[in-house]
Fold:
Amino acid sequence: MKSIVLLVGRLPNIVANVARELEHLPVQWLGAHNREEVIRQLEAEPRIESVIMGAGLDDAIRGELIGVIARRRPDLCIFVKDRASGPEGMAPFVRRLVEAGLHRSHAHSPG
Structure:
């Protein structure tokens, strides 16, 4: 079964392009671009294992979204991309997380 990862970004085309570019990875990608969409995705899909947030969102919005996610799903890891690598750095950032296995939830793992 594929892991489910929520990609959150300001620009819909960046999220869609990342999902398309990384479709060969063993992940089902979901996307959200604002608070309402994040909440909708978290409520609709309980199997989300992690959230990866892009750098295009304003800091206040990113902080608010982290709070929303943490309150609704305290079991999730939230990864926040740097700004220095720009929009073109999103796919490599996501790829590194997935290839390292960091996108998988360990909340229910033994140990």
